[in-house]
Amino acid sequence: MNAQLGVILLLLAFASTLYALVASLVGGRRGSDALVESARNAALVAWPLLTLATLLQIALLVRGEFSVDYVWSVSSRSMPVYLKATALWGGQKGSLLFWAWLMSTFTAGAMLRNWQRERNLMPYFIGASAGTLAFFLLLVTFWENPFAVFYQTPQGDIVSALFEPSRALSGLSAGIAAAGERLPGLLGVILRGVMRFAPPPGSFVVTPADGNGLNPLLRHFGMVIHPPTLYLGFVGFVVPYSFAMAALVRGEISDAWIRATRRWTLVAWLFLSLGLILGGRWAYDVLGWGGYWGWDPVENAALMPWFTGTAFLHSVMIQERRGMMRRWNMLLITFTFLQVILGTFLTRSGVLSSVHSFAQSAIGPLFFLFVAGAAIISIGLLVSRWDKLAADHQLDSLLSRETLFLLNNFVFIALNVVVAIGTFWPLVTELLASVFRGVERASVGPGYFNSATAPLWLFMLLLMGVAPLVAWHRASLARLGRALLWPFALTIGGLALMAVLGVRNPLALAGYGLAIFSGLVTLLEFHRGAMARVRAHGEAYPRALWTLAGRNRRRYGGYTIHLGVVIMAIGVVSSNVYQLETQRAVSAGQAITLGDYVVEYRGLERFIATDGRQVTRAQMGVYRDGREVAQLVPRLDIYASGERMTIPATLITATGDDLYLLLVQWEPVNLSSATIKVYYNPLINWVWGGGLIFVIGTLIAAWPDFSEERRPAAITRRAPTPAAGD
């Protein structure tokens, strides 16, 4: 199978996308429908080209074509077929190819769906989306090409190159490399990073007997679906951003671009949320520290665009209803897009480990230039249209749903800023250390993030509980007080019961109280709407609930999301505040006691798995109240490369608690003893259960209303309804 076909497909896709970028901008400026249509066709052609390239890469991985550099680096003969295929996103080169294919899929779908309805915005939508895709294709084609093949040169050196031996292409590569050595700074770094086009004549293909294999941490099933969902979330936000830029260029101040992107934004947000949840689950199952969110910079890089994306989803409702916050929404979607690119940059450039890694990586400077260029263009367009984006109305009252949504936005931006400071602090201090004497590189740990974000999360729970009870435009304190009476009374009763049962931690009581309050308000909103239908139409209560959600998917899907957040919050508070842990070296027959559980060590066994792993596992018995409740087998796998992977064993209780066992080490001679670490994580499975409800709610909100889709494109803004709960 010829890997050079993949190089040719990438070159064609890049050329097609570059043409789409230029033709769309020129066509839009000249008002030439023919040019714009040709740009659309060129952008659409990129999708089948990238689809073929992606399928070819998967085929090379599955077949074990180890002469291909990328295949050798992430695959091996012992890996199962599904892992070979998903190794596509197991390394940097394949991930960027996958990113480009996903983006071409999203943009092609958005163009086809909105070509007639939003024809006025199409030229510059194509320009913005094609410009982003062209950048990634530039990276994939010339700097991070996954189709490069190993060659041995006549001098005996092993190199990877894109094409077969050629004097002309080899000379061109040598010239670029020489220019990179001569030029100073980042330009030299960029040129030195260009992939070799071809080896010199006389070189021949080298095929290693086996590949390097995938990092053991990436062989977990969660990594089969976690990266794709995260990438879908990342690339999905390119669609609303591109429409926003098109609206700015056109001077379009209506809500057309928001209507065109509402579900695209929800779908992107759904996948980004799902990616974050799955990433937490993967960390819990694989990393072996008893938790699911460690505030790692790579985790934070995905969380930051989620903050601004969530704020955007809330604030666009104010623009649609009141014609307010147009400028703010443009800023939010711009910063969401920039943080999406920044997130990809942070995880791929090496800058998070050190500024020096950035200076040594070719794609680091390229990402920086693209982010800087996109920021300048976006902010420049926004400033040029600032006056046209003025609000139609001002806040009528400080006590209104608009005000609470604005507070919601401020909380998410504050969370974003807090996380950004902690994430970039090592880089800031490293730069300061290079300038000032006595300054040392420093980093912040989970303690900073937890203490700085906890008050903001608690305030967010409070807003979730109060906002549904406050009317648009203006609300009265008396009416709000009456609406709050029952949820508040039930919350106080629940907290009193918890205190009697022994819950005394102030943070836990605050978290539980706000979660209960917010959950009760949300459930009462469902109940109130269902009872209104029961009285008005005589429907059975379950039927009324079903119809209610179907008639207003956006509203009740949002409420379902809130319920998921409430359940997740209870799990997060419980597993953080009341987590127990212990570690002991034990011999056969000895036991470890933690809380209500007794864990008995029964012995150790070692064997070689069929794929060559050295497996060591401990046999453990778990007792509660003197009765055996489970037999658990934590294990540790050592791969041929010497890399280790700890596989915990867990016992899930009926209430959603976890008993989490880790095999830390063992006596190597006669296997007579082992060191076992035990965690007790109360209600931690509420995090995953709440995440499932969260995803269901997003699906409800994003599900298309086909009757609405058939309406004419020109839709006037619905008059706002002042009733609380709308």
Question: Which terms would index this structure?
Answer:
726 residues, alpha+beta, 4 domains, six-stranded antiparallel beta sheet, four-stranded antiparallel beta sheet, 23 helices, 13 strands, 61% helix, globular
Topology record:
Layout: H1 4-30, H2 33-63, H3 69-74, H4 81-86, H5 92-114, H6 122-143, E1 149-152, E2 158-161, H7 167-182, H8 185-192, E3 204-205, H9 222-236, H10 238-250, H11 256-286, H12 297-322, H13 326-349, H14 355-360, H15 363-384, H16 401-435, H17 446-466, H18 477-500, H19 506-537, H20 541-551, H21 553-577, E4 580-587, E5 591-594, E6 597-608, E7 614-624, E8 627-632, E9 635-638, E10 644-647, E11 649-652, E12 658-666, E13 673-681, H22 685-702, H23 706-709
Antiparallel strand pairs: 1-2, 1-3, 4-13, 5-6, 6-7, 7-8, 7-9, 9-10, 11-12, 12-13
